[in-house]
């Protein structure tokens, strides 16, 4: 249920509606727009009628929401959500490119990759410090050291960092270092983890589960938002189907569908979506054409030697070439992608690699 306030509603009238909702035992999520304030009511609304709020001063109308995703849906929030991360705006005219290796393997690897993707026009650095792997014997990430190396790469390049958080107990540690927290596909329905990141006021990128429906993805976003964190990015990264020619089936339909159903920014991950570096470029360009607000692309200086996901990682030069192609696609759909940013003369001399 949402309570739409009149344009001229006073602060006192809005506060009265919030108090009334709390008296009735439901939680409130006010959304302050340019012309109207909308108050989303979440909880057990079975015995609460619209007339309770329609009769209150300053209320224009009360509407029941049919969709189960009350906060992530467009009924409650018609305007697109724009998320700003240290000067980088996701959800606006610019298609933001997040790039970097699947795993942080060493200080030299992550800093050199960060410089390369920054110079090519990437706006956010990705890299895994904690890695969920199918096999318990595969490389699991460097943990705290990986986070420290990511922070150092941020100091060198100025790029905000996004990295995955896997467990509730590591949320405070990862949040201390990361600018965006990533919930991986395997954890999409880890409700304890969703509650934990929902209590932070820090952007969260939620990846669609390997067998998750779009509705389930939006309901998982609802878990985060119902805890008070509205800074959520939705990521399409491919789903499991009967097809074996690619690692996953990259559901490009999900980009416009999510934008139709939700106001949250949509990220496309063609690296995991295809699992093959040769296919990353075509699907990245297709995602921009489909309207994606951001891309996540894996880049590694030596993919053949990568400790994880080398087969889907681009070498730095291939990534730079792809960025040029993406700029042309973005221009064709009235979007932009950041221009190359040379860092050769800006690299701090104090950074010791190795």
Question: Please, could you describe this protein's structure?
Answer:
There is one protein chain. This protein is an alpha/beta fold and 354 residues long. The protein has two domains: 2-63, 2-Layer Sandwich (Alpha-Beta Plaits); 83-332, Alpha-Beta Barrel (TIM Barrel), CATH 3.20.20. It has helices at residues 11-23, 51-54, 107-120, 144-157, 171-177, 191-198, 214-226, 254-261, 270-274, 277-290, 316-332; strands at 2-5, 27-32, 37-42, 59-63, 83-85, 88-90, 96-100, 124-126, 161-164, 180-183, 204-207, 232-236, 266-268, 294-298. The strands form three sheets. Strands 7-8-9-10-11-12-13-14 form an eight-stranded parallel barrel, surrounded by seven helices. Strands 2-3-1-4 form a four-stranded antiparallel β-sheet. Helix 4 links the parallel strand 8 and strand 9. The longest helix has 17 residues, at 316-332. The protein is elongated and about 65 Å long. Residues 348-354 have low confidence and may be disordered.
Order of helices and strands: EHEEHEEEEHEHEHEHEHEHEHHEH
SS-based class: alpha/beta
Strand coverage percent: 15-25%
Helix content: 25-40%
Strand order, sheet with most strands: 7-8-9-10-11-12-13-14
Mean of all residue-level pLDDT scores: 93
Annotate the secondary structure layout.
Blueprint: E1 2-5, H1 11-23, E2 27-32, E3 37-42, H2 51-54, E4 59-63, E5 83-85, E6 88-90, E7 96-100, H3 107-120, E8 124-126, H4 144-157, E9 161-164, H5 171-177, E10 180-183, H6 191-198, E11 204-207, H7 214-226, E12 232-236, H8 254-261, E13 266-268, H9 270-274, H10 277-290, E14 294-298, H11 316-332
Parallel strand pairs: 7-8, 7-14, 8-9, 9-10, 10-11, 11-12, 12-13, 13-14
Antiparallel strand pairs: 1-3, 1-4, 2-3, 5-6
Helix pairs in contact: 3-4, 3-11, 6-7, 10-11
């Amino acid at each position: 249920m949402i309570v739409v306030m009149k344009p001229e509603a006073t602060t006192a009238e809005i506060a009265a509606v919030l108090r009334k909702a709390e008296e009735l035992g439901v939680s409130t999520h006010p959304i302050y727009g340019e012309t109207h304030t909308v108050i989303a009511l979440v909880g057990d609304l079975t015995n609460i009628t619209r007339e309770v709020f329609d009769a209150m001063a300053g209320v224009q109308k009360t509407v029941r929401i049919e969709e189960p995703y009350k906060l992530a849906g467009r009924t409650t929030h018609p305007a697109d959500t724009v998320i700003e991360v240290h000067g980088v705006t996701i959800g606006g005219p610019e298609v933001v490119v997040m790039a970097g290796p699947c795993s942080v393997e060493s200080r030299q690897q992550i800093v050199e990759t960060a410089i390369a993707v920054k110079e090519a026009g990437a706006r956010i650095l990705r890299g895994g410090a904690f890695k969920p792997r199918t096999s318990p014997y595969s490389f699991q990430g460097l943990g705290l050291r990986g986070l420290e190396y990511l922070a150092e790469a941020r100091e060198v390049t100025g790029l905000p960092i996004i990295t995955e958080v896997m467990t509730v107990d590591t949320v405070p540690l990862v949040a201390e270092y990361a600018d965006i927290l990533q919930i991986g596909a395997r954890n999409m329905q880890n409700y304890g983890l969703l509650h934990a990141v929902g209590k932070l006021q820090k952007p969260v990128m939620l990846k669609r589960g390997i067998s998750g429906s779009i509705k389930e993805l939006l309901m998982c976003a609802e878990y985060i938002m119902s805890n008070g964190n509205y800074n959520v990015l939705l990521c399409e990264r491919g789903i499991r189907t009967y097809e074996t020619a690619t690692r996953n089936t990259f559901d490009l339909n999900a980009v416009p569908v999510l934008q139709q159903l939700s106001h949250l920014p949509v990220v496309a991950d063609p690296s995991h979506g295809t699992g093959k570096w040769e296919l990353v470029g075509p699907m990245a360009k297709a995602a921009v054409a489909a309207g994606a607000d951001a891309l996540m692309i894996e880049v590694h200086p030596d993919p053949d030697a990568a400790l994880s996901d080398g087969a889907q990682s681009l070498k730095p030069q291939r990534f730079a070439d792809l960025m040029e192609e993406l700029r042309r696609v973005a221009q064709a759909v009235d979007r932009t992608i950041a221009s190359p940013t040379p860092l050769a003369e800006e690299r701090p001399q104090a950074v010791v690699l190795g």
